[in-house]
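thread: overnight batch results

M.L. [08:02]
morning all. the overnight job finished for the chain we discussed friday. pasting input first so we're all looking at the same thing
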Amino acid sequence: MISGLLVAEKDMQVLKDIVPAAFNNINTKFIVLDKGRSSSSADTQQQKTCLALVADETASVHFQMWADECDQFEPGDIITLSNGIFSYANIAPHRNILVLRAGRRGRAEKVGEFTMSFVETPNLSEIHWVPDPSNPKVYVQDRVISPYSRIFPPAH
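M.L. [08:03]
and the structure it wrote out:
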């Protein structure tokens, strides 16, 4: 929800169009493909976190879940994210990885299950991003680190 209103389908971004940023402005919809175990760490002040692989029809990305989200969302769930953020985070045991998350101002909400087309590549979390030489506040893709998720490798 944004200011009490649902984000219209036409106002949602596809995953391939998101870029790392320091502000909450991502409105998107995706399906949860895989989910890691929950963990707590001193970095998160003992708050539970978990990492998931999510995707839409254009790309995949690692999605960080906090507290109740870890128990609320499962593989196959279709989620809308309002006011999300795509930035670097430390999630035990992984350090300084690029993740999509709701953050403090955002909201993730289950809107369906199992009925969404998706692709697993490219994985936006597996791309090395650099500041744009013409505008250092904007990040651009530099190179692909891995074509697929190294945290959630393909089964085959």
